[in-house]
Amino acid sequence: MKIIKVALITFALFLVSINAQNINKIDLAKTSANKLFDFCKVNNFEKAADLIAYSGKDAERNLNSSFNFKVASEANTVKRISKKIKAFLDISDTYEFGKFEEKTEENIKTYYLEVEFISGNQRLKTIFSLVEVKGKMLLSELN
Predict the structure, then answer these.
(1) What CATH code would you report for 2-142?
(2) Which of 1, 22, 53, 56 has the most neighbouring CB atoms within 10 Å?
(3) DSSP state string for the chain
(4) Domain coordinates of the chain in residue numbers?
(5) Tens of pLDDT along 48-76?
């Protein structure tokens, strides 16, 4: 009987631990998105670059680092992404965060954060894909 109680308590603690980790990831994703939105609103592309995951020809850096704004081609990509986000913000009165999911694909853990941009009665739902790099959530894709 004691073994069953210990096993149940251990399992319960395990579930609580997993839930706490998920809450931390959700908060980290929302904080990162809010910071990125703030930088995009004022066209601070250099700061935005720090929150966008690199994707390009350098396979070692793909989804393992942020864009380097000092590299012209990377700066152009950051500007394009930032302007797209700014357009969502400009046409909206506000935004809300929705569902949060975690999936592992091709050995890469990706987090999906739903964002609804709201203007009056209209809602535009988008999905922000994020990857965790060095303790920060970086935008990897915008759908």
Answers:
(1) 3.10.450
(2) 53
(3) -HHHHHHHHHHHHHHHHHHHHHHHHHHHHHHHHHHHHHHHHTT-HHHHHTTBB--SS-TTTTTTSB--TTSHHHHHHHHHHHHHHHHHHHT-SEEEEEEEEEEEETTEEEEEEEEEEEETTEEEEEEEEEEEETTEEEEEEE-
(4) 2-142
(5) 999 999 999 999 999 999 999 999 999 99
